[in-house]
Amino acid sequence: MRRRLFGSVRARATLGATLVVAVALLAAGASVLLALRSNLTDQASSEAESSARKVAVSIATGTAPAALELPDGDDTPVQVVDGDGRLLAASEDLERISGTGSSAVRPVTPPVDDDGDDDGGDDGGSDRHGGKGKGGDDDSYAYGEIADDAEGGKGSATVDGETRDHRFAALEVKNTRQGDLTVYAGASLSAEQSAVGTALTVMLTGFPVLLGVVGAVTWLVTRRALRPVEGIRSEMSAITASQDLARRVPEPATHDEVARLARTTNETLAALETSVERQRRFVADASHELRSPIASLRTQLEVGAAHPELLDVEGAVADTVRLQELAAGLLLLARLDAGERPGEARVDLATLSGEELSQRPAGRVAVRTHFQPVEVAGSRSQLARVVGNLLDNAQRHARSRVDIAVRAEGPWAVVEVGDDGGGVPEAERERIFERFVRLDDARARDDGGAGLGLAIARDVAVRHGGALTVRSSPAGGALFELRLPVAPAA
After folding, report:
1. Domain coordinates of the chain in residue numbers?
2. Rg (Cα) of the chain, in Å, rounded?
3. Which of 92, 102, 219, 460 is the most exposed, fewest CB within 10 Å of its CB?
């Protein structure tokens, strides 16, 4: 059952379309998630750097770390760390932190300076920014230098018992009263995680539904598209079972590949029907034609066996010759139908026509010739059979004269054989080239012909790339014209 299912074009098309859409959705979903996470992470990094820079500006303008107004730790956890790694300031309610320069969450006591004042003091010898005053020896501690770029990192922070992942920015402030300080500020990644989680949930929920819809639509569409194919298959199966080649498959009213397949199938059935019908007629006619000489020969031999003095030897020989010619014609037609190639020998039609004419005894009619040398490529024996059949046909029907001419006309070699007989009616000029067809006057002559000569001649001409036609001759009889391609120069 499984093998039968996946052997169906519809099932394979549905599976293939679903897999392609699934791969596309996975790739698109992964790209969307990565882009969303990257954008939100960059946004968190920018927020963390902005918060760190605000604190750094306060420190650089003289605010002591202990006096800084730091943002709420729930939103932006902040640390201020000196060069020795001591925590000088931190956001309120910060319980635990990682990913920064210090894991401490409680600031240390500020150190005491040489005048006995702590760093947060404001004596008469110092200005409000913690410097030496305008009359002091050094005014460089009044302002700090903020680094141009902040370094980023990822960590976590616990505030009021709630732990969240953060994106941290580390910004240095140099040359402050407390020395070189580093401000760490974080921005929560909860929005990024929530957005990515929501998008992932939507994708995991929607993708199977979408794949199911794609599979169902593909199944229905392919079913509709392949319905005419199933009709063609079932009709072909019925034709095979009934052997009725007159039946035809249904042709869709569309102009797609299926409609062209149906038309081609019907054309093949028509050609097959014609071929089978032709073969049936051939077998019937051959059996009929063979029956007459065989019956006549048998009768003569039986009479001769009973009464030797009554044996008609000449009649027996004539029937034997007729039977032999008929068998040779049938054999040649069988070879032609089997697709025998004509060969590539170079044949001079003028010489060949002269040889065929010389093999026929001078009869009751005169033969006039006009030969020009012209060569064709093909089978010498088959072409000799064509010329011989045309000569026999002309001599059989001529009253007093037969004309045969060989010449070249451009790329064609032309052989014309005409007579002054009764000619061929225009309505019968194609029919006489059918197998076992003899016109009534030919049958009345009782000349022993089987009606294969002209059929063989046309088949040979066509297989040599030429044609054989008939029209009226100037003398009033029939004029047969054989046209063959001239052989290329050696």
Report:
1. 50-123+140-191, 257-337, 345-485
2. 54
3. 92
One-letter amino acid of 336 = L
pLDDT in tens, 294-334: 887 888 788 888 878 777 777 778 778 778 877 887 787 77
Determine the Cα–Cα distance for residues 160 and 250; give it in Å rounded to an integer.
Answer: 79
Tokens of 81: 């760390």
Is the pLDDT higher at 63 or at 474? Answer: 474
- The pLDDT value given to residue 253: 83
| pTM over the 0.70 mark | no
Rounded to 5°, angle at Cα 468 from 328 and 321: 20
If you average pLDDT over residues 157-171, what whole number do you get?
Answer: 87
β-strand partners of 157? 97, 164
The DSSP call for residue 166 is E
440, HSE (Cβ side, Cα atoms, 13 Å): 1
First and final C-alpha spacing in the chain: 65
DSSP 196-263: HHHHHHHHHHHHHHHHHHHHHHHHHHHHHHHHHHHHHHHHHHHHHHHT-TT------SS-SHHHHHHH
How far is Cα 76 from Cα 186, in angstroms, rounded to an integer? 5
What CATH number should be reported for the domain whose range is 345-485? 3.30.565.10
Give CA separation, 244 vs 176, 230, 269, 273, in Å.
Answer: 106, 19, 10, 9
Structural contact between residues 25 and 215, judged by C-beta atoms closer than 8 angstroms = no
Nearest 5°: CA angle at 178, between 172 and 180?
Answer: 25
Alpha carbon dihedral 402, 408, 414, 418, in 10-degree steps, equals: -20
Span 458-465, average pLDDT = 91
Q: How many distinct helices (H) and strands (E) make up the chain?
A: 9, 14
| Structural class in CATH, domain 257-337 | mainly alpha
